[in-house]
């Protein structure tokens, strides 16, 4: 198994894509620490599923935008697992509105969760990786950050920001054998997309060349590859997994 004896942190993982990434990494031998905002029940059941795969799980309820809390989590993971080999910055939210109706709060909440959260975890975890001269970081971005989507100025900006963070950090840490990549996703079937109206969902399906949404499990396998030793010559890249939607 590619991740035997390794340890990963996955943010925002009680539900959806983060959960699927945790389970795929555990299936491939990795111990996993993850955090969530509110879904304590889902988080507890994820810990049990990871344990059933024979791996260790540690869970934390914290806001990724809170640097002090993030630093505390990373320290505790380092203490309990003795290493941090992989980081997935996955926690994310949408507050979709046209910019005229978008409040300052809508902007701040999305940027603080999606972009500052990724900065917080990268900053806290990179020290451990630099010392070990080994690591891989994957930032879960979106095609919304690549092409821009109407009604998502805050979200598109946050996801484009994650791409800039990816490219800059990749250059900073490459000499220490740490890779940093971004996965720009199209529409994936999770709670985030379940809330879309039927009309919007159908109009998106019509424009996706593969004519379907992706599944969290598919994303889990792609993410595991990008974090794995098979992908160690890939860094600073934005990989699109969107059914052909974006150019
Ligand atoms: P989801 O089903 O809504 O799950 C989001 C997860 O993030 C939840 O576990 C949530 O915790 C956690 N979270 C949210 N805010 C947080 C905060 N401030 N601190 C800590 N955890 C927080 O979303 P998803 O569809 O799996 O999306 C995962 C990532 O993929 C996001 O970054 C999203 O932007 C990106 N993405 C998704 C799609 C898609 O079509 N689904 C497309 C492109 C990119 P609770 O469960 O406790 O609320």
Please outline the major beta sheet. Answer: 7 strands, parallel
Structural class: alpha/beta
Strand content: 15-25%
Say what the CATH topology is. Answer: Rossmann fold
What kind of assembly state do the chains in view correspond to? single chain
| Terminal CA distance | 34 Å
Q: If you compute it from the alpha carbons, what radius of gyration comes out, rounded to the nearest whole angstrom?
A: 17 Å
> What ligands can be seen in this structure?
NADP nicotinamide-adenine-dinucleotide phosphate
CATH class: Alpha Beta
Helix-residue proportion: 40-55%
**Total number of domains:** 1
Number of strands: 7
List SSEs in N-to-C order: EHEHEHEHEHHEHHHE
**Mean pLDDT over all positions:** 97
- The number of helical runs is 9
Low-confidence runs of at least 5 consecutive residues = none
For this structure, what is the CATH homologous superfamily? NAD(P)-binding Rossmann-like Domain
Question: How are strands sequenced across the largest beta sheet?
Answer: 3-2-1-4-5-6-7
Shape label: globular
Short synopsis of the structure:
The chain is of the alpha/beta class. The protein is built from nine helices and seven strands; from the N terminus they run E-H-E-H-E-H-E-H-E-H-H-E-H-H-H-E.
Descriptive report:
With 247 residues, the protein is of the alpha/beta class. The protein has a single domain (7-188, 215-241), classed as Rossmann fold (3-Layer(aba) Sandwich), CATH 3.40.50.720. The protein has 9 helices and 7 strands, in the order βαβαβαβαβααβαααβ. The chain has helices at residues 16-27, 40-52, 67-81, 104-132, 144-147, 153-173, 191-194, 198-207, 216-227, and strands at residues 7-10, 31-36, 57-61, 86-89, 135-142, 178-185, 238-241. A 7-stranded parallel β-sheet has the order 3-2-1-4-5-6-7, sandwiched between helices. Strand 1, helix 1 and strand 2 (31-36) form a beta-alpha-beta unit. Helix 1 (16-27) packs across helix 9 (216-227), helix 3 runs parallel beside helix 4 and helix 4 (104-132) packs parallel to helix 6. NADP nicotinamide-adenine-dinucleotide phosphate is lined by residues 12-18, 35-39, 42, 63-65, 90-93, 113, 140, 142, 185, 187-188, 190-193.
């Amino acid at each position: 198994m590619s991740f035997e004896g390794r340890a990963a942190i996955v943010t925002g993982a009680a539900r959806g894509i983060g959960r699927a990434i945790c389970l795929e990494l555990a299936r491939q031998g990795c111990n996993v620490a993850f955090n969530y905002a509110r879904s304590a029940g889902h988080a507890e059941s994820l810990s049990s599923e990871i344990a059933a795969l024979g791996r260790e799980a540690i869970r934390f309820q914290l806001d990724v935008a809170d640097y002090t809390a993030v630093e505390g989590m990373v320290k505790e993971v380092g203490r309990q697992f003795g290493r941090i080999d992989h980081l997935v910055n996955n926690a994310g939210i949408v507050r979709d509105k046209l910019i005229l109706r978008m409040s300052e709060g809508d902007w701040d909440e999305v940027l603080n969760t999606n972009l500052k959260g990724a900065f917080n975890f990268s900053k806290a975890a990179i020290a451990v990786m630099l010392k070990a001269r080994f690591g891989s970081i994957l930032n879960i971005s979106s095609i919304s950050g690549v092409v821009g989507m109407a009604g998502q100025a805050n979200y598109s900006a946050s996801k484009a920001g994650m791409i800039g963070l990816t490219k800059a950090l990749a250059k900073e840490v490459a000499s220490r054998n740490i890779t940093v990549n971004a996965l720009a996703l199209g529409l994936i079937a999770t709670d985030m997309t379940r809330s879309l109206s039927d009309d919007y969902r159908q109009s998106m399906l019509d424009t996706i060349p593969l004519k379907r949404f992706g599944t969290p499990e598919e994303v889990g396998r792609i993410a595991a590859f990008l974090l794995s030793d098979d992908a160690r010559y890939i860094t600073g890249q934005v990989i699109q997994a969107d059914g052909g939607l974006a150019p």
